């Protein structure tokens, strides 16, 4: 089955950035920032070695969902968009196929505080709603990952859930979790 991101024309430019599909050639560029302790603090899987990272990065499903963020030809971060089915009753399940998306992002910390992550995530939201026709996007993070949830709020996502100590962090133990979402009809560029 063709991945929804395959239906778009890449790359996509924003005011300062270029978003494109990730390829195996992006392994070293993404490892450069994903290996950093401040990055590994919040990512789902903090791989310790280059070989472990290469094995994870080159997995077909992971690579299919991955975009890279470039600034002046340099990879400064990555984005994920996992297109999913919505929950639906059996009689209408076909109408719920590939209508939701789960967002994720990682930015090289040396490029933080300049609005690049906000610009890239806004572009990904626009791609999701206007390019792919998704109806809902969501993202989750640990409550302690303030930069992530503040980014979700900056791009207009709504906090839908604050859970108490339900999310297990590899070094911090059980932490609160947050879930944010946005509907296509709420996205200003969609109106």
From TrEMBL:
Coiled-coil ranges from the UniProt annotation: none
Sequence ranges assigned to domain N-acetyltransferase in this UniProt record: 17-185
Enzyme Commission designation: 2.3.-.-
Domain of life the protein comes from: Bacteria
Repressor among keywords: no
Keywords: Acyltransferase, Transferase
GO molecular function: acyltransferase activity
Enzyme superclass (EC): transferase
Protein's name in the database: GNAT family N-acetyltransferase
Protein's organism: Actinomadura sediminis
Record lineage: Bacteria, Bacillati, Actinomycetota, Actinomycetes, Streptosporangiales
């Amino acid at each position: 089955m063709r991945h929804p991101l395959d239906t778009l024309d890449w790359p996509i430019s924003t005011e300062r950035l270029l978003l494109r599909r990730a390829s195996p050639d992006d392994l070293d560029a993404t490892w450069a920032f994903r290996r950093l302790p401040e990055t590994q603090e919040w990512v789902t899987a903090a791989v310790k070695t280059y070989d472990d990272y290469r094995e994870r990065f080159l997995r077909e499903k992971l690579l299919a969902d991955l975009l890279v963020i470039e600034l002046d030809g340099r990879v400064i971060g990555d984005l994920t968009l996992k297109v999913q089915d919505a929950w639906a009753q059996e009689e209408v399940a076909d109408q719920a196929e590939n209508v939701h998306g789960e967002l994720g992002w990682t930015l090289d910390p040396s490029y933080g505080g300049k609005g690049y992550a906000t610009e890239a995530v806004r572009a990904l939201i626009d791609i999701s709603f206007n390019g792919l026709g998704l109806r809902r996007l969501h993202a989750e993070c640990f409550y302690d990952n303030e930069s992530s949830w503040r980014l979700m709020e900056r791009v207009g996502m709504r906090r839908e859930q604050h859970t108490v100590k339900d999310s297990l962090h590899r070094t911090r133990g059980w932490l609160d979790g947050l879930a944010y979402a946005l509907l296509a009809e709420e996205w200003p560029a969609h109106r």
